[in-house]
Amino acid sequence: MQNEKLSLVEKLGYGSGDFAANLLFHTWNLFLLKFYVDVFGISATAAATMFAITRLLDIVTDPMVGIWADRTRSKWGKYRPWILFGSVPLGLCGYLMFITPDLGPDGKLIYAWISYSLAMLLYTVVQIPYSALMGVMTPDAAQRTQLSSFRFFGAFSAQLLTGAITLYLIDSFGGAEGDLSSGYRTTIALFMILATLLYAFTFISTKERVNDGKTLDSSQPSSDIKGDLKALLTNLGWGVLFVSALFNLIHVAVRNGALLFYFDYYVGDQSKAALFFSVGSVSFLLGILLANFLVKKFAKKHLLVTLTCCTSVMLFAFYLLPPDAYGLMLVFNCCASFVAGPIPVLLYVLYADLADYTEWKTGRKVMALIYSTMLIGVKAGLVVGGALAGYLLGLSGYVANQPQNQQALETIVMLVSVIPASFALLSGLMIIFYPFSEATMEQVEDELRQRRLAA
């Protein structure tokens, strides 16, 4: 059963989970800072501080969720119950972030802190087990690459959808009087309901095969959490991937957090952002479709270094573009998105490889713990990037809903070009130090298969 081929429905079901996740997270990533500053009335600096401080909790909560998920016993398996029972409160808290209660300045900030913190915690509760699910659906590296491709095709289809229609929906639901708070509230409600239904489909359509849903064997006592963490943290491969993920998501968050400001104040037409987001997401999806072909031709490590460096070059080009060069903006965005498409597919396959290597080397099954610690890097990158965008805007003299001074405009341009490009380059250069070759992982996969069959 462990080598059973996955059906198309199961692959689609797994991919729908990241479609759901990105209906939530990509919407937050693109629109939350703008909503807090221009609609809810929180300063950019206060929002940036909130993003940074609340995420310090992830250092504790993310590994704990991973450890608990690895030790979950249920008739549905280890990871699928977390997706089912966490998705409803996640959708509710995601909605609550975008309502605008009539509170004073301090009350608004307190409300934002509470709703944002709860939403991020629940996102962890659902997304860590979802990420780990790929590793127990199949032990086969080729099928994992296919699952990762379906996952990120779902993820960036959601990004395409949110980038293409969110501004239109906000304007439409805001009515003729332009009530942005109502527009945000109704749009986010629709997204959260759809995300919850898609998570349910993931639960229904997928199956945990590796270890037949059992959590532990006799060689891994359930209380030995310290041993699990030691096995992970002393692994050079883990450290390389963690730092690379941190730099990669800083580049994503800085740029995404600044793009609406870029089109609103530098280009002078925020409506042009919708097409920009859409063509970028389509290009990214095409890049994802290329991932399976590339993996058959080249080593994953070399691919990641090359693709990330190419992405960096494309982003640097935005520093040279004048505000009226919209056509060139679309071209460079398409190119950057296309070469970046295979990157998350390859990274998440490496995470699963790392979990297999840890099990092969130490006998410890830490699939969810791997993804939880990587998610710390991902969310830390998103938070640092978002906070960096907010702080730099505040320091530049940015004033909401007003024409910006030259320093603010220059800062906005840097936030979509030089700064994210630099972090993208650092992310790619880190992968040079990844220690496990393709031949090593083939040996690991073969020996683990024999162990599981014997068990």
UniProtKB/TrEMBL annotation:
User: Cellular component terms, GO, for this chain's entry?
Assistant: plasma membrane
Question: Member of which family?
Answer: Belongs to the sodium:galactoside symporter (TC 2.A.2) family.
Which source organism? Neiella marina
Q: Does the keyword Membrane apply?
A: yes
The reply on keyword ATP-binding is: no
Chain segments annotated as transmembrane: 35-58, 79-98, 110-130, 150-170, 182-204, 232-254, 274-295, 302-321, 327-354, 366-392, 412-434
- Tell me the keywords, alphabetical order: Membrane, Transmembrane, Transmembrane helix
Q: Name one GO biological process term.
A: carbohydrate transport
A single MF term (Gene Ontology): symporter activity
Q: Which Pfam families match?
A: MFS_2 (PF13347)
- This protein is called what? MFS transporter
Query: InterPro entries attached here?
Result: MFS_2 (IPR039672), MFS_trans_sf (IPR036259), Na/Gal_symport (IPR001927)
Source species taxonomy: Bacteria, Pseudomonadati, Pseudomonadota, Gammaproteobacteria, Alteromonadales
Q: Which NCBIfam families match?
A: gph
Tell me what gene encodes this.
Answer: ynaJ
